[in-house]
Amino acid sequence: GHETERSKMAPYTTGTISLDPNPDDEEEKQKLIAQVLERQNTLDDLSLRVDTVKVENLKLKSENQVLGQYIENLMAASSVFQSASPKAKNK
């Protein structure tokens, strides 16, 4: 007699994890699963975004290097026109 009573109670004493197939619990489970999936998605999105930003940064860095090189060349060239210095020939 007492054993069956206790086993009926057991699912409720385990806290949030209920072994009873209540429709409410099923709904809760679905909600939890949805939340977990959502968090995983946002994590994926974030890491993707981080990767994208890294790639963008690399692009910008190399563009900056190219621009810097270009400006240096311009300055070297203009100084050649001004003072006939042989700098521009050094490549």
UniProtKB/TrEMBL annotation:
UniProt keywords, alphabetically: Coiled coil, Cytoplasm, Golgi apparatus, Membrane
Superkingdom of the source species: Eukaryota
Tagged with keyword Flavoprotein: no
InterPro entries with a match to the protein in the record: SCOC
Pfam family for this entry, one: DUF2205
Main location: cytoplasm
UniProt KW Coiled coil keyword: yes
Membrane topology annotation: Peripheral membrane protein
Positions of the UniProt region annotated as Disordered: 1-27
GO CC aspect terms: cytosol; Golgi membrane; trans-Golgi network
Record's subcellular location: Cytoplasm, Cytosol; Golgi apparatus membrane; Golgi apparatus, trans-Golgi network
Family, as annotated: Belongs to the SCOC family.
Purpose of the protein: Positive regulator of amino acid starvation-induced autophagy.
Family annotation (PANTHER family): GEO08385P1, SHORT COILED COIL PROTEIN
This protein's name: Short coiled-coil protein
Organism placement in taxonomy: Eukaryota, Metazoa, Spiralia, Lophotrochozoa, Mollusca
